[in-house]
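Note to self: the last two entries modelled the partners one at a time, which told us nothing about the interface. This time every component goes in together.
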Amino acid sequence: MKLGFGNIFSANGKRDLEVISKLRKIEFFQEFKPNELHEIAGIVYVRWYKKNEVIFQEDKPGIGMYFIDSGSVRIARGSLYNGYQQLSVLSHGDILGEFNLFEERVRTISAVALQESCLLGIFRPDLLGLINRKPRLGNKILLRLAQTFSMNLLNQREQLIKMKETLANSDIIL
Amino acid sequence: MSDPALYNGYLLRNRNIVNILLLLLVFFVITLPYTNFIVLLLFLSMLAMMLIDPVIQWLEGVGIGRMTSIILLTGLAIISSITGFIRIFGRIEYESATVADLIDSTYFTTKIKTLLPFLQQNEIVDHYCSFLQFIKHRTIDIFSNQAPTFIAIIIIPILTFFLLKDGFLLKKTFIQSLPNHYIEMFISFLYRLKQKLNVWIRAQVLIALLIGGLISLAFYSLNVDSFLLTGTMVGLSFLIPYYGTVIGAMIALTIALLQTDSASIAIAIIIAFATIKLLYNLLFVKFETNHPHPFIVLLILLIGIYTGGFVGMLTIMPIANFTILTGEEIYHSLKRYGFI
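The predicted structure of the combined assembly is written out below.
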């Protein structure tokens, strides 16, 4: 005989397996072991967004980061209603809102789903809890984030150098 | 990029959620007289969970599994409930009955007037006795029909066990059901509230235990029969802002005068309370939250006395402070995220 609780827990176990399979497909989590992915799945929120639905908005506080599982997301600056400046379009495996994982502060960009999208959210309080409970795993996640940040920084530096070179070769006077 | 229809959808959902929450609140208030025992059990279990959870997190941090830690600590709590609490509660129940008998008889006024002769011709002692009788009857009225204590002793550890084991899961399941627009605000709200409540609850428990323990010890050494009851009541009275020390001193003075044969004990108690208040101000003032206005505190206290007698008077302030902290955090979260 199964009690109500049993059903709730078994359903959740199934959901965790689904989250783990989604996590496995994302590059960020490639180096994590199955038991570590199981722990991480516990703090991941799977969120579905409709086309044009706002994921987060510029000038509003934020507390977490998202991984794109499916669909695509437009990153933009400026008002949602009076025009905006598109910065990039992100798709499967990309990360958005990562700076807010370290501090709850106002977002500097907006993110809007370009089509029906599935995002995996990790939020600061849950990550802090995980770091408290499993310091090794917490450190591994933080190290992985640092690697991602440094990669992004290197890419942006290269872009900046290229832009400087282009500007230097052009007729524009700085 | 903008989609006004979608935005209107948010507003509509906003309004619906607020309406549902208000309806739930009204339902909760209406059913409270019938469900107060269950609410109390839940409240105490959550309190226990908030006190035990940091220990479990620490045990997890040093490599002991969460389930093992929960079973270990809940087992300890159950054993201490059965062995320690039943004895302590039994003793407090006995002491309460003794003090209640003394308040009801003419012994009270005679004894006080004998010990304090300057009050012989004054009616204040009779009025004070009537006031105490009123509070006592309110206490008995409210708590006479409650389920027995042993139900609480069995239920609270079970509820605490499940809250510790599945609290995060329940929270996550609830958050998953929220619309996308509210998820970050709600997680932030819960985190901030938990941080605040953790500090506040630990400080309150520490204050009540320290003050209560000191008073119990002092009264035990002075051979006052109801030393545990006095310690418990005075410990809880120190959680009442502005009036706590005076209420605690009145309780201690009344019980001490009723159960000893020396008026000089009154001076000792007044000096002891002045010293404790001084120490309290030095040690604990940093833990104090923004208290409501003294008038509001008085009003809350009167509601407590009217609804729950002595128990109501001593427990309504922590409950009110808990509610105020939660309300403040809800307001700040809604404001921070631009909902109001």
